[in-house]
Amino acid sequence: MGKLKNIKKPELKTNLPGPKSRELMKFRDEYVPQAIYKTTPIFIKRGEGAVVEDVDGNKLLDFAAGISVLNIGYSHPELVQAVKEQAEKFFHSCFNVLPYESYIQLAKMLCEVTPGDFKKKAFFVNSGAEAIENAIKLARKFTGKSDIICFEGCFHGRTLLTSSLNSKVKPFAFGFGPLVSGIYKLPFAYCYRCAYGLNINNCNFRCAERLNEILQTVTTAENVAAVLLEPIQGEGGFIVPPDGFIERIKQICEENNILLIADEVQSGFCRSGKMFASEYWSVAPDIIAVAKSIAGGLPLAGVIARFDIMDAVHHAGVGGTFGGNPLSCVAGIKVIEVMKKFNFDKKAQKIGNKIYNFLSNIKDKYEIIGDVRGRGAMIGFELITDSKTKKPSSRARNIIVEECYKNGLIIIGTGLFDNFVRIFAPLVVTEEQVEEALKILENAISKANIN
Ligand code: PLP
């Protein structure tokens, strides 16, 4: 195999999608339901670093990274080696039945690298949604209370409990009811579209104060087990709360014996410019849920919490057959080792600064760019029809995403109003690849701006 990861820019042999991808898409549509959504109509053959080759031999830059799973890039050689070695020993034994050391090593590493200068414990499950489900079980058991407060714009998964938490009713909850009760939502600190029409310079965190209000008007502190939030909202469109917002939320939580759960599923593992985005806060969450980039693409998720919260749960109250699979655990250990050894946090800051500065510089040239935001290498931009009304433009977003993949750059959209473009460059991307990607992106933006 050649060094796919070193190509400087996309190398396209066919129009995209190519003929083999088109054939496979027909095959897919025959046997896979429409509910399993699709964003890029190209089938992958292999990937290295930030580059993928499709089944037609086209080479593309992948700045979707499996939705923030490949922070370490495709096929990192140290990860491949670790997984191969484990594969030759055993695939599965079930940690509850025949334990293995890598599970404990990874739990220890996570307790050490997550924020919070207190004794912690960790356990593993299979997906981000399952991690959130378990974080809520812990909070309920520890506090003896049941209600959960989350935020408008949040996304926490697709199980029934997490669908009940999510903000965007369509498609995440519509038709799946009755949903789980005892869940209340607060406006998030989405300053570009402040729920109260205020300005960050003089709002005194009006949205955080809403927590105190709903503890009077909608539920009561005696019922609320936890406040659950994403340090940077992912699916909501990379909404970074201003400094001080989380601190105020945590303060209100402490005054009311409520736990704070951080969903670091999308923002974790150096994506934000720190190992965990909650490190930007001056307070630590009581429980942290992690997944996505934790094992470089192997399915794994984890819950890390204060030891007294963990130990409040009775014997066999959490866990499962596949949680902490040995292949995933050795991959997880390697991901943290590599990220620490090669300063992936700094890499994310450098890549993110380049992308952020580029987008900020072109913002005034294109009226459809309403807001450029994010932190570290979790950067994106919100699209609007015009700067006066700030009406969300999902149309512009769709044009940009399509123009990009047709020219060899894979990116994905998101946003509460389907009008956000997010960029998840793998953190091993080269500077030249970022520059080429930004050229393709600007070209796509210019097309959407006139269409
Ligand atoms: N939490 C956040 C913040 C997410 O972004 C996601 C997935 O996108 C989830 C939870 C759910 O993770 P999973 O798809 O692994 O269940």
Q: Counting H and I runs of at least 4 residues, what is the number of helices?
A: 14
Amount of beta strand = 15-25%
Number of strand elements: 15
Distance between the termini: 41 Å
Shape: globular
H/E order of the elements? HEEEHHHEHEHHEHEHEEEHHHEEHEEEH
Mean pLDDT across all residues, rounded? Answer: 97
Bound small molecules, by name, code or SMILES, are: pyridoxal-5'-phosphate
**Helix percent band:** 25-40%
> Which structural category fits the helices and strands?
alpha/beta
Largest sheet: 7 strands, mixed
Residue runs with pLDDT of under 50 for 5 or more positions: none
Strand order of the largest sheet: 4-10-9-8-7-5-6
Cα Rg: 22 Å
Written account of the structure:
The protein has 451 residues and is of the alpha/beta class. Helix content is 36%, strand content 16%. The strands form three sheets. Strands 4-10-9-8-7-5-6 form a seven-stranded mixed β-sheet, with helices on both faces. The radius of gyration is 22 Å and the shape is globular. The two termini are 41 Å apart. Pyridoxal-5'-phosphate binds at residues 67, 127-129, 132, 155-157, 230, 234-235, 263, 265-266, 291.
